[in-house]
Amino acid sequence: MTSNTMIRRMTPSNATLGKVSPSATTMIRADHTHVISTFHQFHAETSAWRKQAIVQTVCLALEVHAQLEEEIFYPAVREVAPDNEVLSQSVPEHDEMRRLIEKLREMRPEDADYERTFMDLMREVMHHAADEETVLLPIAEHRLADRLGEIGARMTKRRMELAAPKVPAMLWNTVQAMPMRGVWIAAGAVALLAFLMGRGAAARPDYATRHAN
Fold first, then answer.
1. Cα–Cα dist 61/48, whole Å
2. Whole-prediction pTM value?
3. pLDDT for 185-204, tens place per residue?
């Protein structure tokens, strides 16, 4: 089963997503926290393979996050704040992040400019996140308060679609980026997910048979 098929089968309905998804602004803040906390695992003495896993984890997360904002969140904010300066700068800032991500992917952790390029990326991310959290998210929470749940549900559904082809890389990089204690915890979580997915796949034919009779 491909990761795309797996994600399609696991994706809840829009109605269900609306009940369980975080609001759009909560999701964006959580993404920022995840990326910055992952960055804080990167140190000069960190091994080369772990540095690369940390960088790749950050880059994949940023790509999904930026696309969600550009496709769903920014258009919604633009409806209520069309002339906002921070909003107008957001996509060019994403483009600069993408440029640095591509540069990092062409490099190896041992390269002289690898660490500096990653620091350049994180400076961009922190500046961008600060602008969003102090300007755009408050605007959304005041002017789109009654729509944030629906926007969050759309972002959750789209996130699952975007993440589908990246799932193996995301899992591998996340485990590689962790200290050894975290690796065992993550391995247990992956095993539990596989077990639950297997049970769900096994249950579907029984369900179909019952309803066919």
1. 20
2. 0.74
3. 444 544 555 555 455 445 44
